Please model this.
Amino acid sequence: MAVTGFYPGSFDPITKGHLDIISRSARMVDELVLAVGVHHGKTPFLSAQERVGLLERIAVPVIRDAGAAGSVVTFDGLVVDAARKSSARIMIRGLRDASDFDYELQLAGMNRTMARDIETVFLAASPETRFIASSLVKQIAKMGGDITEFVPSEVAEVIAERFGN
Ligand code: ADP
Model:
């Protein structure tokens, strides 16, 4: 049976940390679905359309290189419902530090209570990228800083255009 993994996140913007988790988890599944959370009432940095476009151009080829099929979807409801809609039984999440651990364990526990058929699999962040956070990338970009070390080059270009950095 083909194994489908589901990696949900805001990806606002996608960072080299996300890409690390994507390339490593793609080696463990036959298909990896990247799911962009669209929360109504929360103003994102990049629009859902922009985030989907960047994932399709940057992350899907990385998934293919790892030997799996890749696709991008959006979701605005429960993540377990979105995973089931994609026929995924494995939820992928990344762990950077103790605060990720506490939050992610709670999230995985609640999700597992709601959906016994879906298992969360955690990947430890790689040492080279574990310090990268989308929230900090956004702050640096808004203040005119250089984000090229933290995000794929195409993301840096899109953000530079936006902020004139
Ligand atoms: P969310 O809003 O769901 O936290 P994010 O896009 O910030 O969305 O993160 C999605 C997932 O990717 C989370 O499991 C998060 O811990 C993980 N992640 C984010 N940055 C990194 C990183 N630098 N290394 C490893 N995992 C990461």
The two ends are 48 Å apart (CA to CA). The chain has one domain: 4-130. The chain has a mean pLDDT of 96. Residues 91 and 120 are 4 Å apart (CA to CA).
